[in-house]
Write a structure and sequence with these properties.
It contains 20 helices and 23 strands. It is of the alpha+beta class. Helix 2 runs antiparallel to helix 3.
């Protein structure tokens, strides 16, 4: 594989680099990248019009620079749009009018929904406004998209994470344009319902009707949840137990409508072409209809990054068939990514986007290498061997990313996928006709019963595999450098036979040296004796490290908060989930810790150092570090602190 043979694969990194540069820098005026692109384009045209060639390097450099600047420009346009703008007037409003954007999602004690603000009321009266609010209500009737409701009081801004390595929930929602949340209970008034039937909500209403058909025609309640997720991408109502079963067996991608599902739809739609002898114009017309149906399914299932990627790729493949050409899969993959980034530059930060493209790249790159290890003697073994090769290739490519984000690895992913993927194919073979013909009295009921039975078998097998010993490796870690190393080794393996082996060996050595250097720096920076102190204003948790031993002390820190606020930091530094509790002596209201001879007053949340003085004290949060002066005490009212002894 020569990198020069895939132009869009060369263009993509420069476009991404421009987006990343925009995220690192703030408030770049739009006229700067716009003017720079215009100047670069003029320079490119001048070079192209010259009779004597100035060499290929200069025009190529200008082209790549234009792509970098384009990524910067698109990202800045998005940052300066309403997507990122926080309406601070909403934070101080007395009340506000907002339009319901989706159907209710049931939670344990309330219903979740999303509101689009129309107007706010303050001391000066009503005025137009905008912004999105994530709300939780206890209304007797469910909300319907298009309803306008009046909410008393203002919402609160979603707080940023305060602890290191904590999940950035506020950033996650901000990329969706959501900056506020509010529990409204029953303190709201439905102000207007005239827009419920507006064309804007036809798709949501239609999707809701299809979910209703699934709930009516599929007998088993658990099968209903899986059918809604697998066929329509509606996985919000999945039970935690069944979701964990699929996650721990490495088959969670089955429940999220993805490229696999689009591929199955594509295969079903192209199947009739094998038995039909169509003229050239008829074949082109049929293939054009296939493209329309693929994108209809993509829109219907929620337009997730993996679905858009698959729909774009299959559409381009189909256009190639219409023109009787076979375009490069790598070029199509990179081109589809560029289209998505131009439409929404922030998509590169979505885990679904990253996993989807890495998985497909791994399949394209590694699957042929694995598949040729063995030539099966018959078609049945050939099918399962090809499926095995695809599963291994996708898992090899995605496991560094999965470990980086989720810190788990399913040991029996291969066994699970070999069984569950064919079953899910069968479910879709019956599920799509079920949705189409559900209105036919006996046929709809029969197909619903078949779908329910197949999903029941699928769930039973998934749970059985989940019970295998050692089925899920947890609390795994990998650094960013380690992740790049794994991917680089896979690329070197893929190019070993056709590439320059000497260069590949040198590249491997350089990569190992960089990775080893990163490991050495991390080990050097780790303190042998330190305390990590976490305080949320109500309680305090201390994680203490002495050499290879780890201790902990919890003083009124909420237990339910530890899993998402403290445990990510323990995983990052490879510390146990449940450290040994340290010893403390209580005198009046003061706790004394002999481990480093310091005392802590829970009432004032103040630490007094004893005979052992700290070498350094740092206050650190999700992304910032601040050195503090060393004194006889530390006031830990709220935040996270690192004390090195």
């Amino acid at each position: 594989m020569r990198f020069a043979d895939f132009p869009f694969l060369r263009y993509l990194p420069f476009l991404i680099a421009g987006v990343l540069f925009s995220q690192a820098k703030t408030d770049i005026p739009l006229w700067i990248p716009s003017t720079f692109i215009a100047v670069l384009w003029i320079a490119y045209l001048i070079l192209a019009s010259q009779k004597e060639s100035s060499g290929q390097l200069t025009p190529a450099f200008l082209g790549y620079l234009m792509l970098f600047t384009a990524g910067l420009l698109f990202s800045e346009i998005q940052k300066k749009g309403s997507y990122y703008v926080v309406n601070h007037n909403l934070e101080y409003a007395q009340s506000y009018l907002a339009r319901v954007e989706k159907y209710d999602l049931e939670k344990p004690n309330s219903f979740e929904n999303l509101l689009e603000v129309i107007a706010v009321s303050d001391s000066l009266g009503w005025k137009k406004s905008k912004g999105k609010v994530l709300i939780y209500h206890k209304g007797k009737l469910p909300f319907v998209p298009g309803q306008v409701i009046l909410v008393e009081k203002s919402p609160e801004k979603i707080p940023s994470p305060i602890f290191p390595n904590e999940f950035d929930y506020s950033g996650f929602l901000a990329r969706k344009g959501i900056h506020f949340r509010q529990f409204i209970g029953e303190k709201f008034v439905i102000f207007d319902s005239s827009e419920v039937d507006h064309p804007k909500y036809w798709l949501s209403n239609f999707r809701k009707e299809l979910v209703g058909i699934v709930q009516t025609k599929v007998p088993d309640p658990e099968s209903q949840q899986i059918a809604a997720a697998l066929l329509l991408g509606q996985k919000e109502n999945l039970d935690k137990e069944i979701k964990n079963a699929y996650a721990e067996t490495g088959t969670m991608h089955i429940l999220a409508v993805s490229g696999l599902h689009v591929g199955i739809i594509y295969a079903i739609l192209l199947f009739p072409l094998k038995g039909l002898r169509l003229r050239s114009k008829q074949k082109k017309g049929y293939l054009f209809a296939v493209i329309i149906l693929i994108w209809t399914y993509a829109v219907l299932t929620g337009f997730s990054p993996s679905v858009v990627r698959a729909a774009t790729m299959f559409s381009l493949f189909t256009v190639g068939q219409m023109r009787e050409r076979k375009p490069s899969s790598f070029n199509i993959l990179a081109f589809s990514a560029m289209i998505m980034i131009v439409i929404n530059p922030d998509v590169i930060f979505e885990v679904g986007f990253q996993l989807s493209y890495v998985a497909v790249a791994g399949i394209l790159l590694i699957q042929p290498l694995i598949a040729r290890f063995w030539i099966p003697p018959n078609m049945v073994l050939e099918y399962f061997w090809q499926l095995t090769a695809v599963s291994i290739a996708a898992q090899l490519a995605t496991f560094p990313l999965s470990v980086y984000y989720f810190h788990i690895f399913p040991s029996y992913f291969l066994i699970a996928n070999l069984v569950i993927i064919p079953l899910s194919f069968l479910v879709m073979q019956f599920g799509i006709p079920f949705l189409v013909f559900s209105w036919v009295p006996f046929l709809g009921a029969f197909l619903g019963w078949v779908v329910s039975g197949l999903i029941g078998v699928q769930n039973w097998i998934t749970r059985a595999i989940q019970l295998f010993p050692g089925g899920n490796l947890e609390r795994l870690t990998i650094t960013f450098a380690g992740m790049l190393l794994v991917w680089s080794i896979l690329i070197i393996w893929a190019n070993w036979e056709l590439g320059n082996r000497r260069k590949l060996v040198y590249s491997s050595i350089c990569l190992f040296l960089i990775w080893s250097g990163d490991r050495l720096v991390r080990e050097w920076n780790q303190s042998a004796q330190e305390m990590l102190l976490f305080s949320d204003g109500k309680g305090t948790l201390m994680d203490l490290k002495i050499g290879s031993k780890n201790f902990s002390w919890n003083e009124n820190f909420p237990t339910e908060q530890i899993s998402f606020s403290i445990d990510p930091n323990r995983i990052a530094f490879q510390r146990p989930q449940l450290p040994e509790s340290t010893v403390a002596y209580k005198t009046d209201s003061v706790l004394t810790f002999p481990i480093w001879d310091f005392s802590y007053n829970p009432t004032s949340q103040k630490i007094h150092w004893g005979s052992v003085k700290p070498k350094s004290v740092r206050e650190f949060s999700f992304s910032k570090f601040k050195e503090l002066p060393i004194s006889d005490s530390l006031y830990a009212k709220s935040g996270a602190f690192q004390i090195v002894f």
